[in-house]
Structures are given as C-alpha cells and as structure tokens.
Specification:
The longest helix has 24 residues. It is built from 10 helices and 16 strands. Helix 1 packs across helix 10, helix 2 packs across helix 3 and helix 2 crosses helix 8. The strands form 3 sheets. Strands 3, 5, 6, 7, 8, 15 and 16 form a 7-stranded mixed beta sheet that branches. Helix 3 links the parallel strand 9 and strand 10. It has 2 domains: 144 residues, Quinone Oxidoreductase, Chain A, domain 1 (Alpha-Beta Complex), CATH 3.90.180; 141 residues, Rossmann fold (3-Layer(aba) Sandwich). It has 330 residues and is of the alpha/beta class. The chain starts with a strand and ends with a strand.
C-alpha cells in the first residue's frame, strides 16, 4: 500500500489523499512499463488547477495528480531502464490522462523518463520540476535565437512564481541583466537576492497597451500571457525575442502584428509537456551545469503529501513564491 493524491468525480469533484495498492496503478503498453518508487514530487500551476478543479486539466477519472516525479525504478519492462535506476518524469500527460506522481509509487512509460542527473538529489530535481525545466527551455530557446548575445535587459514576468524564480537565477548566473516583474512589492528583496538587477511592478505590463511601444527589452521570458505578453512583445528591441510559456494572467493574446513585422520580434512558444527526449536531456544537463543549488534551496518550500491539497489552493491563489516540493513518503 502507498498513499496517493486522488482526484475523482463521484459524481461531484473531490481531491483526497488515499491509501491505494499496485492494482490502482495504470496500465502501460507491453514492453514500455516502468514502476517507480516516487521519493519526491512537486506542485506546479497546472497541478494547482487540477487539484482545485478550476480548469479542465484532468481528462480521465479517477486521476492521481502530479505532472512531475523523481525516484527509483523498482521494476521495468523497458529495455533502457532497470531496477535501481534514478529517474525524473516531467509532463507527457501524466496527471492529466495518465495517473501521476503525487503518490508513493507510479507506473510510467519508460520513453517518458530521463536519468536523474548526478548533480541532483530527487528533492532538488523536484525543486526544479516542470517549472524550472521550462525556464531552462526558455533560456535555451532565447540562446538559440541569438538574442542573449548583445547585452541589454532581459525581462522575466511572473517572477516570484516557479518558472520566474528559476529563470531569474539562471539568467543572472549566465551574466545577463535581469528585470523581474511582480505584483508583490514585498518580494523585491527576494528577487534581488536571486540575482535580479531591478524589480518592476507588473502593473506596468498588465493593462491594455499600445501595439508598439518604447523598446525596453533585449529578450523576455513570459509565464503570464494576455496583456502582459502583448506589452512585452510591444516593448522588445528590434530583432529581440520573447519566450512564452505560461498563462497566469490569461490564455488570450490581445496584440497586433506590428512588433513582429516592424521590429522583427520573434515570439517563441515553449512547450514542456511533449518536448522530445533529446531536448529534455539537454535541458537537464544545462540545469546541472548552470543552476546555483544554494539559490534553488532559497526558492524551495517542502510540504508533505497530506498538505499538498491546501498548498495547491494557496498556489492557485498566488500566495506561494518559488517552488513547492512534495514529500510523497512519510
């Protein structure tokens, strides 16, 4: 038996930590299944939406929440994995269509797993989680575009959130001038301690703005969407790029084509859920190389599985900064 954070509609929605056994684990195609003892999971914004039932994230019931997990293989049908291997899981519909990792055990498709980098414990890997891995994908996309080579300020929106906090630390460690946007004035010292050069009020970006504005940013990592993303694009330098990875303000984009056709601004969509394995592995390699683990600890709060539902409610309400690690075993 092990505990799992189970979401169900029976017929009304409910989220509860329950004791279950291996029969509750999902089926995986023959030759691909890997059973993992999950040591740590995490709470991302998507997890909070699912656990609080405020967005149709879950598409199969009952569901075990948790899009991320890290732990040790205990049984494998997959040729690439054996008992004792340490692995990390991010995305691939886990916690949405396939039972997830906010549990003491998970059965997963081995094609979805990446090796746990030697630089990280399972706790540290989940302190990074999908949010931190997405931040690294954003940095890599901006690097590939070439927009981080010429100096200038790099804007990070939603900076006190999981993606934003890791993005600030990564960009600062790589030597960039970072401007962090937040609606929480009380968190300015926190963001400066992560390496931000200055902090601005998100109100500068969150209201409707002109389609083309004064050039301010060499590049942007945006986890917010809606008017914030539209304004970020309108304020990006000629030839700059905006990496978009989130929708905390909204999934709409009330923008015009003007920044793209008059300034050559690139809007780079960042998908972490179905990213190919080679890109995932490279992102985790870069995280092991570029992330300051002392700063990672500064942005991390740990909760038990029993406390995860209440923590998800606070995360959905914007009351959490940084990253939430969930200890899945007592």
């Amino acid at each position: 038996m092990f505990n799992a954070l189970v979401l169900d509609k029976n017929p009304d929605f409910q989220a509860a930590v329950k004791a279950v056994d291996d029969d509750f684990l999902p089926a995986v195609a023959p030759g691909l299944g890997v059973t993992v003892d999950i040591d740590h999971s995490t709470l991302n914004y998507k997890d909070a939406l699912a656990i609080t039932n405020t967005s149709p994230v879950v598409r199969s019931w009952p569901m075990v929440a948790g899009v991320d997990g890290a732990g040790t293989v205990i049984a494998s049908e997959h040729p690439h994995w054996k008992a004792g291997d340490k692995v990390v899981l991010n995305g691939f519909g886990v916690g949405e269509t396939h039972k997830g990792c906010l549990a003491g055990r998970a059965r997963l498709n081995g094609d979805w797993l990446v090796p746990l980098p030697e630089a990280f414990t399972t706790r540290q890997a989940m302190a990074i989680g999908t949010a931190g891995y997405t931040a690294m994908l954003c940095v890599m996309a901006l690097e590939k575009h070439g927009t981080l080579t010429g100096g200038g300020e790099v804007l990070v929106t939603g900076a006190t959130g999981g993606v934003g906090s890791v993005a600030v630390t990564l960009l600062a460690r790589l030597g960039h001038t970072v401007v962090a946007a937040t609606g929480k004035a009380s968190e300015a010292d926190y963001l400066l301690s992560l390496g931000a050069n200055r902090v601005i009020d998100r109100a500068e970006l969150s209201a409707p703005g002109k389609p083309l504005q004064k050039e301010r940013w060499a590049a942007v990592i945006d986890a917010v969407g809606s008017h914030t993303l539209a304004n970020a694009c309108a304020q990006t330098h000629y030839g700059g790029a905006v990496a978009a990875c989130g929708l905390a303000q909204g999934f709409d984009l009330p923008a015009t084509v003007m920044p793209f056709i008059l300034r050559g601004v690139a809007l780079l969509g960042i998908d972490s859920v179905m990213a190919p394995l080679s890109l995932r592995q490279r992102a985790w390699e870069r995280l092991a190389q570029d992330l300051d683990l002392q700063l990672l600890e500064r942005i991390t709060t740990e909760v038990s599985l029993q406390d995860a539902i209440e923590a998800a409610t606070r995360l959905r309400a914007g009351q959490i900064r940084g990253r939430l690690v969930v200890r899945t075993r007592s």
